[in-house]
Amino acid sequence: MPDQGDATGRTGGSTGGVRSTPPAAVRIEGLWKRFGEQVAVAGIDLEIPAGRFIGLVGPNGAGKTTTLSMVTGLLRPDMGRVFVAGHDVWADPVEVKSRIGVLPEGLRLFERLSGRELLGYMGRLRGLPGEETDKRATQLLEVLDLAGSQHKLVVDYSTGMRKKIGLAAALLHNPEVLFLDEPFEGVDPVSAQTIRGVLERYTASGATVVFSSHVMELVESLCDWVAVMAGGHIRAAGPLADVRGDAPSLQNAFLELVGAQDRAAGDSLDWLGGGR
Ligand SMILES: Nc1ncnc2c1ncn2[C@@H]1O[C@H](COP(=O)(O)OP(=O)(O)OP(=O)(O)O)[C@@H](O)[C@H]1O
Hints:
alpha/beta
């Protein structure tokens, strides 16, 4: 297990010793977003602690992607403010963007670059010296099992390979906070295990990962802190054990929190299956 502190001065977790409390990785204040009549995010307040593996969970249409888009500076809120590592996302976007990495939903990449070229380009955008970019790119490609495909064009990558090169691009500048929207969707178990290993190593050094998912087992096994969203509101947030409470699993707690526990499988589908 790597040391909890590193050269960037990050501290990890809350184990032992006298340590100053790190500022929240993300602080959200009164955040609203409406699309026409549809309220996607209904005035949420949330403080996400630093140095943790955070899961943002919620049913389809809960407002997760809209929230992450506003938090990462991709979508302007109608109202409210967001701070990342103490910096206002909309007042100080350059400072914030230098501290975050993002793997968005519906990832768009430069398709006509090879994986290696894509990382070289991202390194230049991030202002890294060429040699440092090369070194980091080589290591990321190796760890993510992309070294053999590094000269292939991104357009020819599979879904899992695209997620992995997107993750490499998001990690290249060693961000303080990494935002991932459904990072495991469409990813096979081997690649998922690889991604998981990289993320665990990254959070162990004191960095923060915020990721959205519908897969409760995954969230339960990876995250130590969760926020549950439904209907544009935060229904619960806190350490995993607190949110789970007395429920046998996060899945049960989640269904109860979003009010789906008693939803029938569909008496109205009495025509479905059998007796053709
Ligand atoms: N660009 C848009 N225009 C109109 N409505 C939108 C837009 N983006 C999101 N919405 C609506 O806002 C609500 C929240 O959507 P959002 O994509 O944030 O949910 P989500 O929790 O990420 O869902 P999923 O898990 O299905 O991806 C939904 O009702 C959605 O239809």
